[in-house]
Amino acid sequence: MRLSRYFLPLLKETPSEAQIVSHRLMLRCGMLRQEAAGIYAWLPLGLRVLKKIEQIVREEMDRAGAVELLMPTLQLADLWRESGRYDDYGAEMLRIKDRHERELLYGPTNEEMVTEIFRASVKSYKDLPKNLYHIQWKFRDEQRPRFGVMRGREFLMKDAYSFDLDEEAGRRAYNRMFASYLRIFSRMGLKAIPMRAETGPIGGDLSHEFHILAETGESGVFCDRRVLELPIPPEDVDYDSDLSGIVKQWTTLYAATEDVHDAARYEAEVAPADRMEARGIEVGQVFFFGDKYSRPMKAFVTGPDGVDRPAQMGSYGVGVSRLLGAIIEASHDDAGCIWPDAVAPFGVAIINLRPGDAAVDEACAGAYAALTKAGKEPLLDDTDGRVGAKFAAMDLIGLPWQLIIGPKGLADGVVELKRRATGERQTLSLEAALKAICA
Amino acid sequence: MRLSRYFLPLLKETPSEAQIVSHRLMLRCGMLRQEAAGIYAWLPLGLRVLKKIEQIVREEMDRAGAVELLMPTLQLADLWRESGRYDDYGAEMLRIKDRHERELLYGPTNEEMVTEIFRASVKSYKDLPKNLYHIQWKFRDEQRPRFGVMRGREFLMKDAYSFDLDEEAGRRAYNRMFASYLRIFSRMGLKAIPMRAETGPIGGDLSHEFHILAETGESGVFCDRRVLELPIPPEDVDYDSDLSGIVKQWTTLYAATEDVHDAARYEAEVAPADRMEARGIEVGQVFFFGDKYSRPMKAFVTGPDGVDRPAQMGSYGVGVSRLLGAIIEASHDDAGCIWPDAVAPFGVAIINLRPGDAAVDEACAGAYAALTKAGKEPLLDDTDGRVGAKFAAMDLIGLPWQLIIGPKGLADGVVELKRRATGERQTLSLEAALKAICA
Question: How far does the CA of residue A43 sit from the closest CA of chain B (Å)?
Fold first, then answer.
């Protein structure tokens, strides 16, 4: 992408409404624009990161055997009356009447709808296990939306739903998602810690929240710091195998949110030097809730014994739009964002120090073509402007590499290459720079 | 994908509510499930086609220089009061109040919001031209939703918005989208005809609708049949060049919807043998409306002369979800769908005639691995079941190729390869079959 043709409305001033760094940076970088309280437009740069995150989630869900569908944003109120949650859900549910006065709602989650889809066609244990997921916009009418995408009202969530014949198989499904979540967050450069947690309005008695440690996190968390060193399941982990060892490994060391924190157990189990009391950003949560929805909604499957029983279900959420904020909270400096390679909106910034200079333009065009061909998705700053402002803008948006090409360097046969994360700068030939970026 | 692990709830009976073939087939193929009137869940097979269509639209928008962002589904009523459309829009607009009694609406289109985004940062002619697009769910509260995705209420639309300094540049933007649309529909295997059309609630005095001819189309159309033979702009068309020749070529021959049909002109201009009166499915519409939104909403840009003037705008819609229906209407037979390669949910069905037979399983697994590696996205039917039912199911979902592998053939060193579109069957070695599919 050439910057002169892009839409990157950087803000010079930090908007006063933004209280945390991720919100400030997303506004300043021209990634996000508020359209109403807790409702945002994703500007081009922000959308690119959102798509990268979404794709990592999708790849890992597919790898774990989940199947993607897409449920609509609006749902019938009557569906939620079947489970009994329509009245329970309270003011966070956005309730709507259409032109014929039919009651709809903007889905805050999809347990009811996916159970309805499942029960319409699956009748036999032979069709199990099933895990259906979608990545769709949700709405929760928060009393006080704040912190940008951290607590928005219209937000993007991946939610998966597992269906099994019995509790043992249901727990295997839970374990698959647990292992998959470890991989998802790790691929984004995050250290996510599964914590024992409350189940809230989803229900059930088994649940873990995945938290990223950050000072600006909304939850207090308590854990054994050795949990930060545990290994992530490899890419070729066999999701058909017994994954209970991985789950056990990750849930033996103490880790709990303040809602379920057990101070006595914490002090008994965790050596003082390993105790960590911190703030966490919740980026995912997994639930096993058995027949909470399948029984009232009559989603029954016939077992090999000929007996019908309600499907054993779990649900598994990832806060896709919130993850943008969490990644920035975890990876930034005073100059701006520092994107991990896997989710960077562009792989490299090419900074043309003298647009209009034929040699510089030509070198930039050559680098742009080579990096595009190599799949590095370059952003070429071909605009006029003060060099200092160009550097500051590229530091602000935080692409992993900056390739700086100017007339003086070219006369000496060299360019400059900067790694954003470390600030390290090298002066080298263009060819060597391209090689380093593509390594 | 292995069918045993997929979620493909085929219907044996044709649902009585489905009046047109695309709606019937989408339900029977397990692509779609109605969740409320005009509101659908996209089941896995349907979602795969939707994503393919979306990606073609995205690639062609990017090629034409448009930049993708993503605006939210919900909008503030006050934004629509700025343009004066809040009261004009009528009962099709879904109006919502949140917990604080603030007035929101589910966006039916985005002229106001994109104008607000534009005016917040673009102030100078130097930043023009700009074309911003998104692919987002919209809602129009149709009085009588019907025909499945053809006239749904929650639907997926690509909408692009161009901003230019003067009318001449605005018309160049219009021409770029016009040419891009010709490419978009052609890539999906469709013959779309641009027709002079009414501008309706979007406004302006220049507009074309793109129609696919089909008996079940909702609009009456009149055209010179020679328009069907006109050339599509090539992949390397230069969007920076003057495209008025392409637009002129496509708009000189008579083509108009019934709303603006001019019978006298039609009879004067079109030879009787070339007259075609048919039904059309509208799959896209382009508008140029000048300052209709930019003037009341004060989206002004400063020209090189230092004078501020309202941006000249156009908007450009593609009915992404409707296109699924249009493609099926244009490409099916009595046995089911016939997907054009570019939008097929999977590239090839591998039909295992004897699951559990070691040699057949092994041959199928080998073909599956080879076709996956070649990017052909195979669907492997590894389920038990009557052979006749398996063939019927694969004809129904209509993947471009069927690779049929059974014990008798394998004993003779051969498999069967069927092309869905022609019904042509060949008996050949597995190696030759893979080569033919990948050719």
Answer: 5
Q: How far is B429 from chain A (nearest CA, A)?
A: 31
pLDDT computed for residue B342 by the predictor: 97
User: Which of B43, B68, B96 lies closest to A47 in CB terms?
Assistant: B68
For residue B182, which of B96, B64, B101 has the smallest C-alpha distance?
B64
Distance CA(B15)–CA(B13), nearest Å, equals 6
Residue A308 structural domain: 3-337
- Residue B204, pLDDT > 80, answer no
A350 shares a domain with A276: no
Q: Nearest by CB to B70, which of A41, A106, A113?
A: A41
- CATH code for position B37: 3.30.930.10
Cis peptide before A272 (omega within 30 of 0): no
User: Tens digits of per-residue pLDDT, A34-80?
Assistant: 999 999 999 999 999 999 999 999 999 999 999 999 999 999 999 99
Judge: A120–B9 Cβ closer than 8 Å, yes or no: yes
Give ipTM to 2 decimals: 0.96
Same domain, B130 and B82: yes
Q: Which of A39, A65, A98 sits opposite B141 (nearest CB)?
A: A98
Quote the CA–CA distance of B199 and B203 in Å, as a whole number.
Answer: 5
Same domain, A52 and A191: yes
What pTM was estimated for this model as a whole?
0.97
Same domain membership, residue A370 and residue A322: no
Measuring CA to CA, which residue among B226, B142, B240, B160 is closest to residue B191? B226
| Cross-chain residue pair B47–A69, CB shorter than 8 Å | yes
Residues B243 and B216 reside in one and the same domain = yes
In the predicted model, is pLDDT for residue A111 greater than 90? yes
CATH number of domain containing B395: 3.40.50.800
**Domain total in chain B:** 2
Q: Residue A310 is inside which H or E element, if any?
A: strand A308-310
Q: Which chain A residues are within 8 Å of B139, Cβ to Cβ?
A: 74
Contact flag A36-B7 (C-beta cutoff 8 Å): no
Whether residues A407 and A277 share a domain: the answer is no
pLDDT at B201: 74
